[in-house]
Description:
It contains 14 helices and twelve strands. With 462 residues, the protein is an alpha/beta fold. It has two domains: 333 residues, Alkaline Phosphatase, subunit A (3-Layer(aba) Sandwich), CATH 3.40.720; 97 residues, Arylsulfatase, C-terminal domain, CATH 3.30.1120. The strands form two sheets. An eight-stranded mixed beta sheet has the order 4-3-5-1-6-7-2-8, with helices on both faces. Helix 7 packs parallel to helix 9. The chain is globular, with a radius of gyration of 22 Å.
Amino acid sequence: MIQRSSRRSILKAGVVGAGAALAQTSKLPNILLVLSDDHSAPHLGCYGDPAVQTPNLDRFAAEGMRFDRAYTTAPQCSPSRASILTGLSPQRVCMTRLHAPLPREHRTYYEVLRERGCFTGVAGRNHHMDGLQSKQQWHYDVHRRNNLVSMPERVDFLHAGKQEDAPAQFQLFLDKKPKDKPFAFQVGFSDPHMPWTAEEFEKKYRLEDIRLPGFLPDTPEMRRMMIQYYAEVSHADMLFGQVMRVLEKNGLRENTLVLFMGDNGASIPFGKMTLYQAGWHVPLLARWPGRVRPGSSTAELVSGVDLFATFLEAAGAPIPAITESRSFLPLLEGRPFQGRDYVFCSRGWHERLDLVRGLASRTHSFLYNVWPKYSPPQPPQSYDPSRVDPKLAAKWARTTRPLYEMYDLRSDPWELDNLAGKSEHKAMEDTLKEALSEWMEITHDFLPPPNINLTRPNPNPF
């Protein structure tokens, strides 16, 4: 069973009273959130990846805090971004599938901050919070006919366009902002989402310099894939630098809390749309001059839902009683902070049906594969299983997957050795199952929790 302290950590630990951040100053801060799309940790130079070239983000990290254990609530865009906006898990806001509209009854941090006097806006990829807004899609008219389109009402400024427009749109937003108001603004990049077309940045990389993660076989095709991916990351880094220059040109650097985060993992094998680490472990960087110590880092577990409470506390706004969000503002400011024991993730429909729930603890990852069907990644043409580690070969050879997977991230960061079902690891498996089951219960998940014996035959089905 979960100890009482762990149970508290699932629900409320880490939330501190609104307004604590304003003890140092009566001036409300500006808040700027920049989201990249399909971006796994550790693919930034500041995370220790020696190949990727990200000078702007590396400089930004040196000016603030790097989070080494930040996670999203879903390995796909729309559900993850819905959690960031609302402080609630995807199943709780009815957005476990891609392109679902965010229900009106769930308030976003934009709306709460607007009540605090902030001028609010979004530019770039807001990513389908009103569903996929294309007239060629069947639900375009359905959403309008049933009054499901709500994003234009939630913010003062909305420009859902190309990522290249984001810096100019940020400037337009600032031009429209009343001079006496603070702002809360979100910039959404498409990079490094597919298609990978940043050919001008690909020239900066060489095959021999690429260091592949240990869950990928080292083949020329895989190295070429990573060069294309890195080029998109470098393009996003360039755009980030342009956004920062807009902020500084307008004299807003000093009183602005800026966060950069990936919205889910990279679109590579065992990444996006999976609950392996590459699917939902993402970069998160924070800077707030005078409040966040430059060059700092933390290994505390942080979830995408936590941005909601963090932004609200920074603005002195009350944090709703019903929330899964925990403010990490004390951590940013170097104050006492009670961190999470677990972060949680859910996977729903995205191009194909798949139902997975999972968690990460300080030491382990746990996956609950509810849906039995599995579409394994296709190995590259030059892949030779006899020339790789047997555990890696076994991972790539799977055509089915077990109900449960558990990995010790300290000794097995690439998740190659499944410990679930092994007697010597039963105590840990039971603890993680119980934690995941409790989270599924309190978030009203429609799936059966893993602490129910799903393999036991029902002697009386009627």
